[in-house]
Amino acid sequence: MLPESTNGAGGTSGGGLAVPMAWLCAEYLADEVLRAAALVAPGSLEYRAGLQALALTVHLAGEPDGPAGPWAGRRVDEWLRHTAYDRPWPPWVEERLAARRAAGDDGPDLALARTAWARLRDTWIRAADLDGRTDPESPVDEAEQVWLPAWKLGLPLAHLSLHLR
């Protein structure tokens, strides 16, 4: 019996189910890195933001079909560059998503990546203001909280987790 809701003509995609393996691999790698770093509790909003930010970075920095081979040091270095504080991450994400869509990649991986980006962009979290410090050497005052888009909290968490892996 054929599944009722799959992509493609005739109810299947190339004779099988449309499984987002590239996205699932990226999300698995992100989860492993965040759990190993143990900076925030799994299941928290902060963890979810970090997971989605890192999964998006891994997915969009790699090939459209998913990570090829083990994630060696050069891959981690690339992910660290993309998640660095001085990098314009949101425009990079939007450009990569648009490029994949323009290239005809409209599969389940891209759909999940677009959903993750929409959540990170549209979900706001109340957290310490990391950008409002006038002196970079001064400690962060966690009592001064502001509303931030989830990516602004998840991206530094992803970056720090990569450093601690």
Q: What does the model show?
A:
This protein has 165 residues and is mostly helical. It contains six helices and two strands; from the N terminus they run αααααββα. Strands 1-2 form a two-stranded antiparallel ribbon. The longest helix has 17 residues, at 21-37. The chain starts with 20 loop residues before the first helix and ends with a helix. Residues 1-13 have low confidence and may be disordered.
Total DSSP E strands: 2
The strand order across the widest sheet is 1-2
**Per DSSP, what share of the residues sits in E-state strands of 2 or more residues?**
5-15%
Category by helix and strand content: mainly alpha
The total of helices stands at: 6
Order of helices and strands: HHHHHEEH
Q: Point out poorly predicted stretches.
A: 1-13
Largest sheet: 2 strands, antiparallel
Features:
mainly alpha, 6% strand, disordered N terminus, 165 residues, two-stranded antiparallel sheet
List the helices and strands and how they pair.
Elements: H1 21-37, H2 45-61, H3 73-83, H4 89-102, H5 108-122, E1 124-128, E2 145-149, H6 150-164
Antiparallel strand pairs: 1-2
Helix pairs in contact: 1-2, 1-5, 1-6, 2-3, 2-5, 2-6, 3-6, 4-5, 5-6
